[in-house]
Specification:
Distance between the termini: 25 Å
Pfam family, one: YqhG
Shape: extended
Number of helices: 8
Radius of gyration: 26 Å
Structural class: alpha/beta
Length: 283
């Protein structure tokens, strides 16, 4: 997912897959009814469901209004939820996708002719997070041909229009299903190597700026604790008491610096969350 349009498309596909009816589908706006199992995955409110399932067995499903541009307004909708990279609801949907479909197997069944050959391709979907004082997430897909070792980028877009079956074609179709020459582990390594190569080739100005921001924050924090020590200095206090107070400030400063480092230091996280072994024609 690179932009808001792709986020909305991801939501459509997710809701279709979990059988959550989309009641309204408009530019930058979705109104969707969440079945109870989906609601429990996407909205963290266990006490609500404890009460509902104890008292209100026929409690209506939640109607969720989602917007994909902050300026979108609907007269009949109050407090819609804005979905963008890093938003909690979108993260919950991604986690739900990981939980429900982390591994799958599919054989192409559309566009096949007698004598066609189906070749194995491993598809991996992963989330790449650019983490610093602010976080930006991207959802990307790759494919690797387990016969030739060729790696494809933006692979989901190449197969999204195809229809798949979890079962291989019947013998009557005379379709040959080729066996993989590479293992899934070898295919994953090829994708991983390409992802790392692409990341190294990126513009990392954002990380340099984050490092500068982190350095300023560290300097401000250190200056504050140094001034705090001077303000609270008491020349009449015993040396032992001064030493205890100094150690206290030093320990607190180290803790705050460590928290700042974990929160703001620039880093890139690569999180694979879905694999599919697809047998495709014309590869």
């Amino acid at each position: 997912m690179q932009n808001q349009e792709e986020i909305q498309d991801f939501c459509r596909r997710y809701f279709e897959a979990v059988q959550a009816p989309i009641l309204r589908d408009e530019p930058n706006f979705l109104e969707v009814e969440l079945p109870r199992d989906v609601d429990k995955e996407l909205i963290d409110r266990p006490y609500h469901w404890m009460m509902v399932e104890t008292i209100y067995q026929d409690y209506p499903n939640t109607i969720k209004h989602l917007i994909f541009e902050p300026t979108v307004e609907k007269e009949d909708v109050q407090r819609p939820e804005y979905l963008t990279f890093g938003s909690l609801f979108l993260s919950k949907m991604i986690d739900s996708t990981k939980k429900r479909g982390s591994c799958t197997l599919g054989y192409q069944r559309t566009g096949l002719q007698t004598g066609a050959r189906l070749t194995p391709v491993l598809m991996m979907t992963c989330k790449i997070s650019y983490v610093a004082d602010r976080c930006r997430d991207e959802i990307v897909t790759y494919g690797v041909h387990l016969g030739t070792g060729d790696v494809y980028t933006d692979f989901y877009e190449q197969v999204v229009g195809l229809d798949f079956s979890p079962e291989p074609p019947p013998p009557s179709q005379l379709v040959h299903v080729e066996s993989p020459k590479l293992t899934v582990k070898q295919g994953y390594k090829k994708i991983r190597d390409l992802v790392q190569k692409e990341i190294l080739a990126m513009d990392h100005t954002w990380a340099e700026e984050a490092e500068e921001h982190l350095a300023r924050e560290r300097e401000q924090l250190q200056t504050y604790y140094q001034s705090l020590g001077l303000v609270n200095a008491d020349s009449t206090a015993p040396d032992e008491e001064k030493l205890t107070k100094a150690k206290l400030y030093e320990g607190e400063l180290e803790m705050r610096l460590d928290e700042l480092q974990k929160r703001c230091a620039p880093r890139i996280k690569i999180e694979p969350y879905q694999f599919a072994l697809l047998y495709l024609a014309n590869r």
